[in-house]
Each structure stands twice: as C-alpha cells, then as structure tokens.
Amino acid sequence: MPALWIAHVTVTDEEAYGRYAALAGPAIAKHGGQFIARGGRYVQLEGKERPRNVVARFPSVEAAETCYHSPEYQEALSHARGASERELLIVETSE
C-alpha cells in the first residue's frame, strides 16, 4: 500500500537548509517518492505550528523508510540537522 512521508519543519538556517532541500529532492525521487505538498498554504488547528510542511507519496512504508536510511538522504539530512527543528513520520494510506 502507498504511504505518505509527512514533515513539519521550522527552518533556523536558510542557507544550510537550502543545501538539504537540493539533495533531499533527488534522494526522495530515487526511492519512488513524489511530492504532493511542499511548503504551501496551511491552517494550524492543533499542536505545535511549523511554517514548512511537506508531504511526499511513496509506493510503500518500506520504500519511504528505505529512503530515509539511504546514504543519499542521510547526506541531505546532515545539512538539516542544526538548521531546522523537524518532525517526520511515515503513514500508510488506505488506497
């Protein structure tokens, strides 16, 4: 079943986070991920507000998790650490 990779982010260093974004996109695509929302308008109804919200669809939970642990994504993530506060989860869809 398909899965969604959902990230909620507050960027604290735009330059470093830009390096993350430049590397993360290709890493996500390599593992079958497709962005369906990326930093667009949002309405915060509950919980901690994060001004950047990203959703990518993957073929499966396993594909999304493999992407996260891949060398390509970990290289990208090294630029996000210290440049952002984030929450990231993977959730299986019902379709």
Automatic annotation (TrEMBL):
The organism's place on the tree of life at top rank: Bacteria
DUF1330 domain sequence ranges: 2-93
A Pfam family this chain is assigned to: DUF1330
PANTHER family found in the cross-reference section: BLR0684 PROTEIN (PTHR41521:SF4), PTHR41521
Protein name, as recorded: DUF1330 domain-containing protein
Source lineage: Bacteria, Pseudomonadati, Pseudomonadota, Alphaproteobacteria, Rhodobacterales
